Each structure stands twice: as C-alpha cells, then as structure tokens.
Amino acid sequence: MKMRRLAALIITVTIANTAFAQKSGNRIESFLTDSLDNDRQEILEQLANMPNIEIGKGVTFRPKNDSYEMTIRFRMQNMVGLYFNDRFTLTEAEAQVKRLRLRFDGYIFSPKFVYSIQLGFSSYDSEPIPNGNMNLIRDAIVYFVPNSSWNIGFGQTKVKANRARVNSSSALQFVDRSIVNSEFGGDRDFGFFGEYYYGDHDSFALAAKASVTLGEGRNWNNSDLTTGGFAYTGRLELYPFGRLHGKSEYIEGDLEYEETPKLMVGLGYTFNNGAQRIQGWKGSIINNGQTRDIGSYYADMVFKYRGFAMAADYLGRHLFNRQSAILPAGQHIYTGSGLNVQGSYLFDSKWELAVRNSTMFPDSEIQSAVGYSLWNQSTIGLTRYIIGHSLKVQLDVSYNHLENAPISPSDRWGIRFQVELGL
After folding, report:
1. pTM of the prediction?
2. Confidence at residue 22, expressed as pLDDT on a 0 to 100 scale
3. How is residue 286 annotated by DSSP?
C-alpha cells in the first residue's frame, strides 16, 4: 500500500509541477478516483499544499491555513553588443550578463499585507552608488491593500513617474530602454507610496499615484536636510476605453492581443528639493556639496489593438530659481527634454517587429557640455517570443545621429543580441 501510494504521489506531483497541470485538475482527480480510491483524499490534501510551478509566474508556496504566500522568481538577460563608427569600423564589443535578479513576492498574515523583494547580482545591477553604499537591493517594500481600489506602500521600489521606467526591463520589446528614458526617466527610491484605481476593462478607468521619497535614489540611506529635502511625485493615468488586460500598459507589445482598442494616457511630475545628484535619483554627486532643486515632467501614452502596439514618451528636466545647470569641476545637469516614439506588430503571437525613434533636445546652456544640439537614435528590433516575455530572443540595430557635434561621433551604429529567461 505504501509503495502504491508513493508511486501515485510521484506521478501526481510530476503532472502538477507543470503549467499544464493547472488546467488538468479534472483528469488528475479522475485518475485518483479510478485507481486509488482509498488514498484519494490524503493524496489530494498533499497535492494541494505543494508548490505551484509555472513559467513566468515563479514557484508559489502557500500553507494549509493560508497564513502567508511566497512566490520566488528569477530572471537573467545575457547580452552581446557590437558598436561601429561612421565608417562602419568596429570600435567596441560588449558581452555581459546584463541583469541577473531574484525576486520574492507574496503576503503575510493576510492578503492585505503584501510584500515585494528584488535583488540584483550582475555588475550592472550591483555597482556601488556614489556615496559608497552597496547596490544589491532593488526592491524591499510592504503594502497595505485594503481593497482592489487603493494601496499604501512603505519601503524602496520604483517611483511611479513615467511609463518607460515603471515598465519592467523583463517586458521590453527592445534590448533596453530608450536614451530618453535613460536620461530623464525616474528610478527607485525609499519612502511612502500610494495608489488609487477606478474602473475596469470595459469602461472609463483611471489611476492616481503619488509618493514622498528621500530623493537621492535607491540605497542612499541618509540625506542632509539642512541643504536639501525630499522628492514629491504625482502621476495620473486615464483609460478612455477601459483598462488594458493583464496590466499590459506596462508590458511592451500587444501579447494580450486586445480585441478592442485600448489607450492609456499618463501625466506625471516630480519636484526634487535640494537634490545631491546630477540626475536627481541617479548620477554623480554634485561637487562642492552643492544641491539643485530639480523638476522633472513626464507625458506618455500606450495604444494597443489586435497585435499592434504604439507608445510615446515626452520627458524633460528643469531647474528652479534660475539655478545654473553648469556645475563646478566640469559637471552639468542635463536640462532639456526628449521624445520617444515606438510601434510594433506581433505576428502569430511569436514574432514581433518593432521600430523606435528617440530624440534628445538639450537646453542651449548645456549644449557645449554635452557636445551636440540634438541627438537622434533610430532603432529597429526583432523579437522571437517563446514563452511570452519570460523566454525570448531579441535583436536590434540602432543608428545614432548628432547635430552640431564638434567631432564626428565614434559610435554611430550599434547591433545588440539578447536572450531573456525568467521563471
């Protein structure tokens, strides 16, 4: 009897530990009823308390009393890049584990108390920040979620400032985010966060998000409030035709294949009082103990319909009180704006062709410091989705054009190849 029970349990576990098993419950129960009638209830109880494993959704543990839930995920991005000058001579080669991350999500005591932890282990993720602190921790936040309409968070996570930054790097349709987001987009920070949601997928909906954070970026820990202050961020999202399915306003490409047109329009603003770093949440420390009051503005949209997806982002940065963007010892704060537009079409839910055009417009005050009056980057990308964004292969080619540059730029062309794998 014990051998028979053990064999049945092994067979059942093997079936259950696949994504398909979630859809095969009736067949498993039928098997148990027909073959193991005496032990059916005991084995079903054991099966119900085993971890659920599904590609893209991690490994989930939940005890019998539902006192907690924990989902473990990992993902990696292996990338190689080749860069060429205007004569198409190879000038640089790049090969690295771009991202290697481990994530824990779930709730404790009650589904109203939600947590999220994410660690980054690649050199890109964990490089020490300018004040010397280590940079292993990306997210460490707990939320109180009283209902589906709103939540309050405390800890470190992404500031909900602009679409492109909140969009996970695992859910991109190019090898990486645009040059516009890299300069002007938000980042992670520590503080208090609040979100409110109204509406559903079938009618007008909106979301309002706000935060008060330290203002110096992730893992900074301490800020001198005698010379600076906090960062205050607000964002409003409108969904005229209802929410996108699968929260795909923050997933690039129309993998959900929206049957009706879906649109998200977002507006955001951040006031970073007395920022110590040249990009507010990112960048080097401003020399000589100086600070700047930095304002950042964000406008973006996402449209999806039957495999077609389009996104646009207009981002910018300015200073208050006529402060100069030129800093001591050759530093500067990049003031100005940037526009990013990208579109794509998904063929047969597997192959996607995408194009992107990104343009940087520096203010006249800093053009000599950055070395151009305009920077345009055009990119074409091809993605083969094997298991959605969880397992995919990507290739993109970019061409860079700089206007009024004092010398010809060394890198005008770039070709990048990347494999993304996540559980």
Report:
1. 0.86
2. 44
3. P
